[in-house]
Amino acid sequence: MGSDSVFAGVFELDDANGICGLVMSPEDLLDALTSLVDKSILIREEWGTTVCFRMLETLREYGREKAEEAAQFVDLRRRHHDWHRRLVAEAEWISAYQLEWITRLERQNSNLREALEFSLAGDDDAAIESSLTMTATLLLFWLTRGRFNEGRNWLGRALARKTPGFDGRTRQGLVCRERSRRSTGRFLCRS
């Protein structure tokens, strides 16, 4: 239960496998999730043809406390962040799969926010680059969903980070590079 507490909102089987599957086989993970559903610790939901799981917030807080006591929660959050960073990077915005990606990211929205919070809490260059890359990539998602303020908020927070290795021009360059790469050059960047 401690591992599943890293998820905010719903998560899919491949999310659990990507984050928690490092310590168990896919079969054992499915058995564990089924057991947690049978015990009403997890709730099974269907989003169209996709099966998702969700944990009640009080149980999530309890699981988080247990993971923190076992000194596992920071590692779980790092794996959660890395998984969602890769998920966002794989999104195919300009393709026949665009609607499926928008739907999946919509389901994962709470988890994406958690991953962004984790990257914004880091104080090293890798965390800053991760927050900039994720926000720049997610701009198209936020635009398609009409979440202009949310996109502006995350991007502003990522750009406001202060570290010696990233000056303003570097930050803007990263964001512009990512936006251009993701949108096939339809956005113009100012220096």
Structural commentary:
- The structure is a single chain.
- With 191 residues, this protein is mainly alpha-helical.
- Helices cover 64% and strands 8% of the residues.
- The protein is built from nine helices and three strands; from the N terminus they run βααββααααααα.
- It has a three-stranded antiparallel beta sheet with strand order 1-3-2.
- α1 crosses α4, α4 crosses α6 and α7 crosses α9.
- The C terminus is likely disordered.
Q: Tell me the Rg in angstroms.
A: 18 Å
Helical percent range?
55-70%
Could you give the distance between the termini?
47 Å
Total DSSP helices:
9
Q: Structural class given helices, strands, pairing?
A: mainly alpha
**Topology pattern, helix = H, strand = E:** EHHEEHHHHHHH
Shape: globular
Q: Please outline the major beta sheet.
A: 3 strands, antiparallel
Mean of pLDDT: 83
Could you tell me the number of beta strands? 3
- Report the uncertain regions: 183-191
Q: Strand-residue fraction?
A: 5-15%
Strand adjacency order, main sheet: 1-3-2
